[in-house]
Write a structure and sequence with these properties.
By secondary structure, this protein is an alpha+beta fold. The protein has 7 helices and 7 strands. The two termini are 33 Å apart.
Length: 351
């Protein structure tokens, strides 16, 4: 088993729980944060038209939209901020692969936010980010996310987030998503450790089902994380005024964390494959033990069956038939045979 990796992360405080997703809501929620080193504004907007004044507002603006099922609202925001029609289409289509697209005036980034649903299954949610010169727009499928720590940093002026630009805010949001991957990996690691103990002690059919479930979940995680490496690498390499040099150093840190998640996922995949081998070996060993006991019992009864078979023949003239103590003597002989065989088996360490 790989060592726990969460202690090596620096994005979230230790002990941060994995995000538990919420059910899809019909209402679209639009929130906005505008800030600089001295000023801060946070409000919930009632109408999508209220986003327009923040397009060229001084400072950094973060507009977050929860619920993208209302295509009309997404189209209006796209019109207000001059988004390409293909960008609007990709925002609404939630089956996108993590990617980044450069449209000169803005960068379009698609990520996968992972969480556990009420049935403890891993579920993904598409998060689309629009990085502009002085704003970031985030689109989410439903209310609830992993960005609370980022919001708290802005409100309390912790760290450098209020002194840097929109590119740093985009980095912080991506880093929060990657941080949540580590929280999920911890869940997987605990489950794998518990399964390994169960496999050694009492492997059951239910254990096999749990192993296959974990294998699917880890594969699902890998599918969501693997393209993210390309996204971060592209952000580092592309020459754009939207991303400043100081932010590039932080993006490299996210890239390292992404590689770490991928490596841990590969290690979990190998561990789960090993658990399948352990399960098959344990079941085979258990079957062999049962067959061993049955074979020993059958072997013990072979000579007893032979003796009773001889004295079960219906011949008129057979020796010892008229003996007064013939019956108990035969029983004693049979008992001695059993004892001798058991002693022999134990000496050979057959059981």
């Amino acid at each position: 088993m790989p060592a726990k990796r969460r202690t090596q992360k620096t994005g979230l405080p230790p002990g941060t729980p994995v995000y538990i997703g919420k059910e899809r809501t019909k209402k679209v929620k639009i929130t906005v944060m505008n800030y600089d080193e001295k000023n801060f504004l946070e409000k919930e907007l009632n109408k999508v038209e209220e986003c327009l004044p923040f397009k060229n507002k001084s400072g950094v603006t973060w507009i977050n939209i929860d619920g993208i099922h209302n295509v009309g609202i997404v189209e209006k925001i796209g019109k207000f901020f001059d988004l390409h029609p293909l960008t609007v289409e990709d925002i609404v289509n939630t089956n996108q692969r993590p990617k980044i697209e450069d449209f000169n005036d803005y960068d379009f980034i698609v990520l996968k936010m992972l969480y556990m649903n009420s049935k403890k299954n891993l579920v993904d949610e598409q998060v689309s980010l629009i990085l502009g010169k002085n704003f970031v727009i985030s689109f989410q499928e439903k209310e609830g996310d992993v960005f609370d720590y980022v919001r708290e940093r802005i409100r309390s002026s912790k760290g450098k987030i209020k002194s840097l630009g929109a590119d740093y805010l985009a980095y912080a949001l991506m880093d929060a998503i990657v941080d949540n991957y580590f929280a999920i990996l911890e869940r997987f690691e605990d489950s794998i450790e518990g399964l390994q103990e169960r496999l050694v002690k009492t492997p059951t059919r239910n254990t096999l089902q749990v192993i296959h479930h974990l294998k699917r979940e880890v594969g699902f995680l890998k599918k969501a994380v693997w393209p993210l490496r390309e996204v971060i690498a592209s952000l580092e390499k592309q020459e754009t005024p939207l991303i400043t040099k100081p932010t590039l150093f932080y993006l490299r840190d996210v890239y390292d964390h992404t590689i770490q998640v991928i490596d841990t996922t590969e290690a979990f995949k190998d561990s789960i494959s090993g658990m399948l081998d352990i399960y098959l070996s344990s079941v085979s060993n258990k079957t062999n033990q049962i067959m061993k006991v049955l074979t020993i019992i059958a072997t013990i009864f072979i000579p007893l069956t032979f003796i009773t078979g001889i004295y079960g023949m219906n011949f008129k003239y057979m020796p010892e038939l008229t003996w007064r103590y013939g019956y108990p003597i035969v029983l004693i002989i049979m008992a001695i045979v059993v004892i001798l065989m058991i002693v022999y088996f134990k000496k050979k360490k057959w059981f």
